[in-house]
Specification:
Length: 701
Amino acid sequence: MLLRQSLAAIFRTIIQPAATGLIILLGFAAPAIAQSPPGSGTNHISVALVPESRAPAAGKATTIAISMSPQSGWHGYWRTPGDAGLPSKLTWTLPSGVEAGTPAYPVPRRLLIADLMNYVYDRPYALLVPVTIGPGLAVGTKLKIALKMDYLACTREACLPETADVSAIIEIGNGATDPAVAQNFALWRKALSTNSAETATHSFANGRFRLSVPVVGDIGDDPYLFIDDQDAVNFASPQAFSRSGNTLIVETAASNGASQKALKALLDLGNGRGLEIVSQAGTVPAAGEPLSGAPDQKNATNKIVLTLMAFAGAILGGLILNIMPCVFPILSLKALSLARSAEDYGGARTEAVAYSAGVIFVCVLLGALILALRAAGTQVGWAFQLQSPGVVFGLILLVGAIGFNLAGLFEFSTISAGSDLAAKSGPAGAFWTGALAAFVATPCTGPFMAAALGAALVLPTIAALLIFVGLGLGLSLPFLAIGFVPRFRRMLPKPGAWMNTFRHVLAVPMFVTALGLAWVLGGQTGTTGIILSMAALLILSLGLWAMGLRQRSMERHAWMPAVAGLVLAATLAPLLPTRVDAAQAAQIAGHEPFDNAKLEHLRAKGTPVFLYLTADWCLTCKVNEKAAIERSETQDAFKKAGVVTMVGDWTNGNAEITKFLEKNGRSGVPLYLWYSPGKEAVVLPQILTISILASLAENAK
């Protein structure tokens, strides 16, 4: 009954203002999430036209290959891309008498990202196009075949539309072929599927799609049916295969737009063979003997195990966040409330649940935003909100206002219910304290949490959101323990006169937090940003001071000076200058700025490299830098061993660093990697010491 009453109180006081308040808070993040990866100026999938014969005979057919070569990490799409992507568009410019047919595609690969199934090519491949040469062309006639190809080049994080204008010159001859070219065409044809002589049948019933097709010969452990019709099936749903004699039967989830029309499909037999089939609506026999392998079940089991491990890591990581320097000052906001509620068991439980609700709400919302933005092709990572100077500017004002309140300059009690947020008492105050703690905690990607958040970006959406729930649960566990375990509450001091003094003391960490945020803003925008933020905080403090005077005089509308101060302070935000260049900052610090190509070059030379990815708002990163990385003992050891230190500054966001983090299974900083000559990277602990780094340098000699 008590828990039910607590939850009822939380919903009455929290849910109504929650959405509006948090949307306002997140509104500062717009500049950060609008980032998109810059283009490199060159195509990520190179295209070339390769004639099978440079001297085709008149009146005969020949073949031209469209050779596609994706860069590492990039992929192109099959003729039906799946749940995302676009098919390629071919625009030919052909001489009179020359005609190009429909290209034949090799068997694609499957790429599942966030419950979206994509049919892709991530290795060099070729589309083979039949070309007919008209009769009557004299031997020696030169013909130019030109192609404009529009296609999509993608990574797991982003897609770029690309265009290639390619051409080839052929000369009418006797049809001779070059042996090397013939060998390439033999390999390309081997990758193609063959046309099935049998007609398949399919049916739609009870939300299921079933298809049967006669197949002679062995079938591998991982067959798959690629269907050309976007409206026939749910591409991401598992496919179940069984066999009855020579008939192969496949079953999967049907799409809402399924119809009984004929279908084209490519059947990957899982053994290197592919069959092009045409299916007509009809009767499909009952399932036969299930095929061995069951890859979808294995993948499902692996995902469950990964989800549970990541969930446990997120809880542990969230728990550790409570002692991190970027979270502890926020927790001081509720220290007084906990002391007051030491004897009020109902109130303590209510505030504990409300605080936890605020933490989990923000963690899940931020996680959902990241997943949605990455699915849309925007490269963001954990703590993306603090990559925006506008967010940092707003947090300086918020944390400063809380500090002035704790110092006794004014009281929140006369401000409307939607404005007091974290400084209120009761469930609403606890909720907003939790929300603020979670919002500010995200830069601290502490131990255990980094891998868990990295796993969240490759799991299905529901499983990924569960990871963010685990993070919030871990962060709120201490308050839940105090709220629901009487022994812990009895350990708190009794309420008394000391609480007023303690309240004033708690203002100190809030002002220190504001100074730290101002330093972060300076790293993003230079000294001008610091001056503007301090000026804004001064203007706001004058408004809050005037409000406090009016409160003590019991005047009506005491809040008006504070609102005026806030409006004037906010007008300075658009004046924040352009961001400081991260690469330039790294060079000033005496390190190599992060560059993936430079990193590979150093590794190829056998140079030991220490790479660390950091950000000014990551206090864990800064502690490691001052306590271990930048210490003279470490730098002397690095110098003797010829170690190159490379730093990636993620303060303002960087698409290349975001992609590199995800490649290494992380969603935020810090990340420390050690590259010994001729060896793969070693991921170092997130808490570094001089002895760790010096020992690595000694062994690298």
